[in-house]
Amino acid sequence: MSVRTIAVKYGVHRGTIPTFVLRSGGKLRSTGLNNERRASAAILYRDGHTLQEVADRLGIDPKTVRNAVVAEGISPRPRGRRPMAI
Predict the structure, then answer these.
(1) Domain residue extents for the chain
(2) Which CATH class is domain 31-86?
(3) Contact 1/14 with Cβ under 8 angstroms?
(4) Does the pTM exceed 0.90?
(5) Is the Cα dihedral 25, 23, 34, 80 positive or negative?
(6) How far, in Å, CA of 9 to CA of 59, rounded?
(7) Which of 2, 53, 54, 55 could lock 44 by a disulfide, CB 3.0 to 4.6 Å apart?
C-alpha cells in the first residue's frame, strides 16, 4: 500500500507512516528509478515515444517517466506532440 493510502485509512498525516515503519524495523520502498532505468526512459522518450508509451513499456507511472526525462536534461514535449521525422 502507498503511504498516502495508509495515512487516509488510519486518519494520520502521511509523514507519520514512514516513521512507524522504520521504528518497527521495516523498510521503505525506494522511489524513482535507478540510473540505468532513468537513462533507458530518457532514450525511449528522446526516440519519439510518448511519456505514456515509455511508462507502459517500463511498467511505471508516466509521472515517473517525466521526472526521469527532466533529470536527464531533456525538456518534455508539449502534450500530444511527437518529434517530427526528418
Answers:
(1) 1-29, 31-86
(2) mainly alpha
(3) no
(4) no
(5) positive
(6) 26
(7) 54
Q: Which residue, among 67, 46, 45, 69, has the nearest Cα to 57 in the 3D structure?
A: 45
Please write the tens of the pLDDT for every residue from 27-45: 887 667 889 999 999 999 9
Per-residue pLDDT of the chain (86 residues; tens, 9 = 90+): 778 888 999 999 989 998 999 999 998 876 678 899 999 999 999 999 999 999 999 988 899 999 999 999 999 998 766 666 66
